[in-house]
Automatic annotation (TrEMBL):
Annotated InterPro entries: Bact_transf
Keyword annotations from UniProtKB, A to Z: Cell membrane, Coiled coil, Membrane, Transferase, Transmembrane, Transmembrane helix
Family matches, as PANTHER family: COLANIC BIOSYNTHESIS UDP-GLUCOSE LIPID CARRIER TRANSFERASE, UNDECAPRENYL-PHOSPHATE GALACTOSE PHOSPHOTRANSFERASE
Species of the source: Prochlorococcus marinus str. MIT 9201
Pfam family, one: Bac_transf
Main localization, broad class: membrane
Species classification: Bacteria, Bacillati, Cyanobacteriota, Cyanophyceae, Synechococcales
Cell location: Cell membrane
Name of the protein described by the UniProt record: Undecaprenyl-phosphate galactosephosphotransferase
Ranges for domain Bacterial sugar transferase: 20-136
Length: 144
């Protein structure tokens, strides 16, 4: 990430209506100039997720579950927030294998709630299998 990433983001979304809408919808930018080439590679291959396995070992995270929610995103969950945080956050989950960054944030919330409501060993197995597919057979619908 670029050292002045927050200033660059603020400038981008202030001066470009299309980018502002994209960021409001997904909390990401497809062609984010703040991310270095190495960062893009790590993100596209999901290698940037490896350090989270330390959180799993420390029992702060699960391998499968809803994505961690950062403070400024809590309001996006509304009444569903308490339901979603009732489980440990996961490295992978239904959202990540259902379109990932090409889905709106609203869809992410729906998928996280769907996972919480339908959690089962079979669903976890399906998510693990689909996660391997996303990692080893990536396409343009993956991370950016």
């Amino acid at each position: 990430m670029h050292p002045e990433a927050e200033d660059i983001l603020e400038n981008l979304i202030t001066n470009n209506e299309k980018l502002r809408k994209e960021f409001e919808e997904t909390h990401k930018l497809k062609n984010d100039p703040r991310i270095t080439n190495i960062g893009k590679f790590l993100r596209k291959t999901s290698l940037d997720e490896i350090p989270q396995f330390l959180n799993v070992i420390k029992m702060e995270m699960s391998i499968i579950g809803p994505r961690p929610i950062v403070k400024n995103e809590i309001q996006k969950y509304g009444e569903s927030y308490n339901k979603v945080i009732s489980l440990k956050p996961g490295i992978t989950g239904l959202w990540q294998v259902s379109g990932r960054n090409n889905l709106s944030y609203k869809r992410r919330v729906i998928l996280d709630c769907l996972y919480v409501d339908n959690i089962s060993p079979l669903l976890d197995l399906r998510i693990i299998i689909r996660t391997f597919g996303v990692i080893f057979f990536p396409n343009d619908r993956g991370a950016y």
